[in-house]
């Protein structure tokens, strides 16, 4: 397995067509990341690869470009299948592929995930798609109902394979792989490389090249601080840290669903703009939570590790771990969410008595012994983190031909709201979300609910 970080190359050096190079330029891609420079030439050559690389390393673009480079848009059948552990990640991957394929005419990317009605997916499958992105359970359901024909499949991607194994998808993965052509190209990406991943890789491909991509230099810009929790209530400790640090946004990781919900409830009760994210929430609630946090209308997200998988926030000021994670790879994954894109990040870990053994293991990766510090006391004048934004949900999406520009047009039609009042916009299959300033929310709701967009009436509500 190679541990060498290659010399960064330009995308123009690997033989990509003009359409993809144009999309890369329009998307702001400059140089390849190490994972792209190491894996993309092999992927484009048609090799099977197993890549160990951290989240945020650019792996999605690597396999997306590999898929799109050999895709035949005139062949309206599934030519690539990407399997992801969660719906959130699948949606993100599908969006990334669409972004890179924007200059390829008539290319269709379809997501097949649980949490949404099957009938919409069945209709979409009947119309055909070039690239399928989905979760193992829902994809296998379509396979078992003979709704998928993999005769033309060229590429199989297992993204975040370690999480799929952790979530118990071994049997589903095995069943899906068995239905795909033996001639397929296999691409497996994983943040860690435990024994189970090695076994899965051998089942999927006997001759895959194994690549271990060195962590990006940005990791060095993450400062880690460890606070002694003692008998202090963890929710109170998190509250004091947030008041003390005043981050623009923060993710708080908990080892259990109950703890995540309890801490979120405590923070909300103290006036913080906070939300919980864990497996007990219904899919629609998880979707709404993800959108609110990524759009900035909630500033604190208290989450379990599996639920937060696939949530990609480009700029995250602070990560707090309530107790050390169950394993050290997960701890590394948590702290790696801050300090991305070269920015400086801060990761704070609350260490309880039960963490002593894990702390000693973690210490092996540090040049010096870890020093536990006393919990800071928040300044008296500090205020709870609140958001100046609110996210609105519209009762229509891509199926209604709704586009971000249509929503902007509806909100600015009477010239009372400008682009400064409007934040991020996300359009999904059946819903759309737009974030607006708190003071503009009432007027924005009136504009949408009392008029038409593209000749249709939509209902909007504040989340």
UniProtKB/TrEMBL annotation:
It is an enzyme of class 3 (hydrolase). One of its GO terms (biological process) is ribosome assembly. Residues 40-211 form the Helicase ATP-binding domain. It comes from the Bacteria. It catalyses: ATP + H2O = ADP + phosphate + H(+). Its EC number is 3.6.4.13. Keywords: ATP-binding, Cytoplasm, Helicase, Hydrolase, Nucleotide-binding. One of its GO terms (molecular function) is RNA helicase activity. The keyword Nucleotide-binding applies. Belongs to the DEAD box helicase family. Pfam families: DbpA (PF03880), DEAD (PF00270), Helicase_C (PF00271). Residues 9-37 form the DEAD-box RNA helicase Q domain. Transmembrane segments: none annotated. Gene3D superfamilies: 3.30.70.330, P-loop containing nucleotide triphosphate hydrolases. This is DEAD-box ATP-dependent RNA helicase RhpA. Residues 237-383 form the Helicase C-terminal domain. It comes from Pseudidiomarina andamanensis. One of its GO terms (cellular component) is cytosol. A motif (Q motif) lies at residues 9-37. The keyword 4Fe-4S does not apply.
């Amino acid at each position: 397995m190679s541990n060498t970080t290659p010399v960064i190359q330009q995308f123009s050096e690997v033989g990509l067509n003009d359409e993809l190079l144009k999309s890369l330029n329009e998307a702001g891609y400059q140089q390849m990341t190490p994972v792209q420079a190491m894996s993309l030439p092999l992927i484009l050559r048609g090799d099977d690869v197993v890549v160990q690389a951290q989240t945020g390393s650019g792996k999605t673009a690597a396999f997306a470009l590999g898929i799109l480079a050999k895709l035949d848009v005139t062949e309206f059948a599934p030519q690539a299948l990407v399997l992801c552990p969660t719906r959130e990640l699948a949606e993100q991957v599908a969006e990334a592929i669409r972004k890179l394929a924007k200059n390829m005419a008539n290319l269709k990317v379809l997501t097949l995930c649980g949490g949404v009605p099957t009938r919409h997916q069945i209709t979409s499958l009947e119309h055909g798609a070039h690239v399928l992105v989905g979760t193992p359970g829902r994809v296998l359901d379509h396979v078992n109902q003979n709704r998928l024909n993999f005769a033309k499949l060229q590429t199989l991607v297992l993204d975040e394979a370690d999480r799929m194994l952790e979530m118990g998808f071994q049997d589903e993965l095995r069943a899906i792989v068995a239905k795909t052509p033996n001639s397929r190209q296999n691409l497996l990406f994983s943040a860690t490389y435990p024994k189970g991943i090695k076994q899965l890789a051998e089942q999927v491909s006997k001759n895959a090249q194994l690549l271990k991509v060195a962590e990006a230099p940005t990791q060095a810009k993450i400062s880690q601080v460890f606070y002694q929790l003692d008998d202090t209530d963890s929710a109170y400790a998190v509250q004091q840290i947030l008041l003390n640090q005043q981050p623009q946004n923060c993710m708080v990781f908990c080892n259990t669903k109950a703890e995540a919900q309890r801490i979120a409830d405590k923070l909300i009760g103290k006036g913080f703009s906070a939300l919980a994210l864990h497996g007990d929430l219904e899919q629609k609630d998880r979707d709404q939570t993800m959108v609110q946090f990524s759009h900035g209308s909630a500033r604190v997200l208290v989450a379990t590790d599996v639920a937060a998988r696939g949530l990609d926030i480009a700029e995250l000021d602070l990560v707090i771990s309530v107790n050390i994670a169950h394993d050290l790879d997960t701890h590394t994954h948590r702290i790696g969410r801050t300090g991305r894109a070269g920015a400086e990040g801060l990761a704070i870990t609350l260490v309880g008595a039960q963490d002593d053994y894990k702390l000693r293991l973690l210490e092996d990766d540090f040049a010096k012994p870890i020093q536990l510090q006393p919990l800071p006391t928040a300044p008296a004048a500090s205020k709870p983190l609140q958001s100046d934004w609110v996210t609105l949900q519209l009762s229509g999406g891509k199926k209604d031909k709704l586009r971000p520009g249509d929503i902007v047009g509806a909100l600015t039609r009477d010239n009372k709201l400008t682009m400064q009042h409007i934040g991020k916009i996300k359009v999904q299959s059946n819903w759309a979300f737009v974030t607006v300033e708190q003071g503009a929310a009432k007027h924005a709701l009136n504009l949408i609910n009392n008029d038409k967009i593209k000749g249709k009436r939509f209902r909007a509500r504040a989340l």
